[in-house]
Amino acid sequence: MKKVRITVLKTTLDQELAAEYGAEGLGPCPMLREGQVFYADYAKPEGLCDEAWKAIYQYVFALAHGAGEGLFYFGDWIRKPGVAICSCNDGLRPVIFKLEATDEEAAVNYTPVR
Q1: pLDDT tens sequence across 43-95
Q2: Quick one: how far is CA 57 from the chain centroid?
Q3: Dist CA 104 CA 101 (whole Å)
Q4: What is the pTM assigned to this prediction?
Q5: CA 33, CA 52: separation in Å to the nearest integer?
Q6: C-beta atoms surrounding 44 within 10 Å
Q7: Residue 47 backbone zone (phi > 0: left; psi -120 to 50: alpha; other: beta)
Q8: Is the dihedral angle over the CA atoms 87, 43, 107, 109 positive or is it negative?
Q9: Which residues contact 57 (CB under 8 A, 6 or more apart)?
Q10: Neighbours of 30 (CB within 10 A)
Q11: Which residues, including other chains, have CB under 8 Å from residue 83's CB and lie 6 or more apart?
């Protein structure tokens, strides 16, 4: 299993939806910032939003297990092998992530319970 680099590409705010549904003073996600980088394999990296992890973990898992050697789906989504562009589930202020397969081996840092 390989590590996957998670880069925050963009924090956004849908002004129209925020004006209609958002709380007063709502802005882009306050938890993450553009350019922030995390590394993951089987577990959520420390400091990454739980909701974002739930939205992207299946792509992280796939890349960590070799999906990065080809293109996702039928090559009609992302043109670069080993890359996925994903977002969190916040409909008013989604955060856009770039996930990249790396050559760095992942290491289990816990003792499994048997």
Answers
A1: 899 999 999 999 999 999 999 988 767 777 767 788 888 899 999 999 999 99
A2: 7
A3: 9
A4: 0.89
A5: 13
A6: 17
A7: left
A8: positive
A9: 40, 44
A10: 9
A11: 68, 98, 99, 100, 101
